[in-house]
Design goal:
214 residues; alpha+beta; Jelly Rolls; eight-stranded antiparallel β-sheet; four-stranded antiparallel β-sheet; 14 strands; 17% helix; binds 2-oxoglutaric acid; binds fe (ii) ion; L-ascorbic acid binding; Fe2OG dioxygenase domain-containing protein; Pro_4_hyd_alph_FE2OG_OXY
Length: 214
């Protein structure tokens, strides 16, 4: 596949695997990829500074009533920041997905004891808020997430349904398709950002949609 290609809202295993050092998680139930060293430590440090400058309590779509479900902080990253624009370009290069299909970048910051309990990134089609979140840009397709630091203890991302734990590491990318091969949401992508036990944890996520974000 042409390494400079861009696609409408879609990425492809063959395209991702054409990048050096990309690894596919060997499990037939998900399309999931890991690339160590996706970002260099200097860029990660600059992005952590941006998150530290401005963050708010994280929220959840379709709250289940558990006020401790997601206890982290979120940073809405402005494309006007040169580092954010540079990171957006990196996500385009690695995913091949036209940037119009991406949501604005979001940082997450976890202190000791903070977590995001088991959830999926797609919106449940039967839920009352489905239209609110998906009417314009459609369902989430791919998740591309980068860990910005090594966490002293805890803070791994656990994919319970496939028995896979990904440890945070400065600059490491994890990416997965939130859908099954027939396009329906894939429950095997269920994941839990486990509690940080020591230190802090920072990630940035690029979520892609079926249609342009607008
Ligand atoms: O912080 C993590 O490890 C995962 C975060 C996550 O799953 C999310 O923000 O949707
Ligand atoms: Fe998630």
């Amino acid at each position: 596949m042409n390494p400079d290609a861009t696609f409408d809202g879609e990425s492809f295993p063959a395209f991702l695997m054409a990048h050096a050092d990309m690894q596919r998680v060997p499990d037939g139930r998900v399309e999931m990829f890991v690339q160590r060293g996706f970002l260099d430590p200097e860029m990660c440090a600059g992005l952590i500074d941006l998150i530290e400058r401005q963050h708010r309590p994280s929220t959840v779509a379709d709250s289940n009533g558990d006020s401790a479900f997601r206890t982290s902080s979120t940073c809405d990253l402005s494309f006007d920041e040169p580092l954010v624009a540079a990171l957006t370009a990196r996500f385009t290069q690695i995913s091949g997905i036209d940037p119009q299909y991406g949501e604005p970048l979001q940082g997450q910051r976890y202190e000791v004891g903070q977590e995001f309990k088991a959830h999926t990134d797609y919106f449940e089609p039967g839920n009352p808020d489905f239209q609110k979140y998906c009417a314009i840009a459609g369902q989430r397709t791919w998740t591309f997430m980068v860990y910005l630091n090594d966490v002293a203890a805890g803070g791994a991302t656990r994919f319970k349904a496939i028995d896979k734990i990904i440890q945070p590491e400065t600059g490491k990318l994890v990416a997965w398709n939130n859908r099954r091969p027939d396009g329906r949401p894939n429950p095997a992508t269920l994941h839990h950002a486990m509690k940080v036990r020591r230190g802090r944890k920072y990630v940035i996520t690029r979520w892609y949609r079926e249609r342009p974000w607008g």
